[in-house]
Specification:
The relative contact order of chain A is 0.10. The first copy, chain A, is built from 12 helices and no strands. The C terminus of chain A is likely disordered. Chain A is mostly helical and about 210 residues long. In chain A, α9 packs across α10 and α10 packs antiparallel against α11. Chains A and B meet through α9, α10 and α11 of A and α9, α10 and α11 of B.
């Protein structure tokens, strides 16, 4: 048992090292100039070993903790939505599950480095947009199932899903300018504005973010 | 004056004929197989004449009435947002200006034919997505200006813009399943749900759409 735990730990380390090397090389040379061979070299493993962990350099770039990779999957999201208390409103449900995803993305430096790489490449931008679209579809399906609405004829589930994905996108974009606030906190604030019907109430003076050193 | 009016009318006719021919040929042969020469041939003008009206076959495909082409521009949208009553809330302002855009798109058949062409081509999908992103940015800037908020540090303008663009996207997608409802009406309904904070209230029985023949 002990040696199996060690093996798992070792595997997680190699996975993380490959993901880190992908990001580092992409920042240095540009993502399109990075090969799987170069990433494997950097970690001193073979390209074949790389392929045991990731199916492509794109996957290695977007890899986070194995748990959060799972959370960004349609299966996790779908199950997470289904498992919430039946009395919760759809907006509250999506706020809760996206809040869990936001916790996994909460390493500010890694996230912004990744976004710098994505900004270089239209291909990566499309991939990220496609991933958000998939999450949106799964959320709409989850909401439709919970509220007994028909996804084809009733626009409500799609509207809630689009607004929720939008809140996540805005949180990810504005997080950088909020040194005093965690990503889940900012996302929670945006969901509160959605739930209130987006009233135009200027935010209160925020002593926390102003007194915190940058 | 009379001959100048005739000239303008004639130009509008050629423009519309080129746009119609682009859509027709794209539906028939696939958008990527359609050349500017073939479109011009179809209308019996030269490729050079085509280029007096449109800079590319993509532009010809997305062309609608000259007025609505203008409305989809950043300049129109920006001015329209600035001109609304200062007492209106940001959501109400975006509902009003997107409602005007929706009126221009209200030809159901033409819209769905265009969407069928867009569905064939990842390139056109990206172009449409880029256009929606541009509208989103202009809306966020307009809201920031109206509410005296800072676009960089305050996520509210972006959140309202993202939710509004989302409502437009959902309206465009669900409109097909709503034979009794116009696009501006459906969009208005979705904005009402946004303003109410997206409560999970099943829609009332709708005698209009059910009694109308399909």
């Amino acid at each position: 048992m002990r040696s199996s735990g060690r093996r798992e730990r070792k595997k997680a380390e190699v996975r993380q090292a490959l993901a880190d090397a992908t990001l580092r090389l992409a920042l240095e040379h540009g993502f399109e100039n990075v090969t799987v061979e170069a990433i494997a070299d950097e970690v001193d493993v073979s390209a074949r070993t790389f392929s045991n962990y990731f199916s492509s350099k794109e996957e290695a770039l977007f890899a986070t903790h194995p748990r959060s990779a799972g959370r960004l999957s349609s299966e996790w999201l779908s199950a997470a939505i289904a498992e919430r208390d039946p009395d919760e409103s759809p907006v509250a449900v999506l706020a809760a599950v996206l809040g869990q995803i936001a916790q996994d993305l909460a390493d500010r430096t890694a996230w912004w480095s990744k976004m710098a790489v994505v900004a270089q490449s239209p291909h990566l931008q499309m991939r990220l947009a496609a991933q958000l679209s998939r999450l949106e579809v799964v959320m709409a399906q989850g909401v439709a199932r919970r509220s007994g609405r028909d996804l084809g004829s009733d626009p409500y589930p799609a509207l809630v899903a689009v607004a929720a994905t939008g809140a996540l996108r805005v949180a990810l974009t504005h997080w950088r300018s909020r040194p005093g606030q965690s990503l889940p906190e900012l996302l929670g604030e945006l969901f509160a504005e959605l739930t209130a019907g987006l009233p135009d109430v200027p935010p209160p003076h925020d002593p926390v973010s102003e007194s915190r050193p940058r």
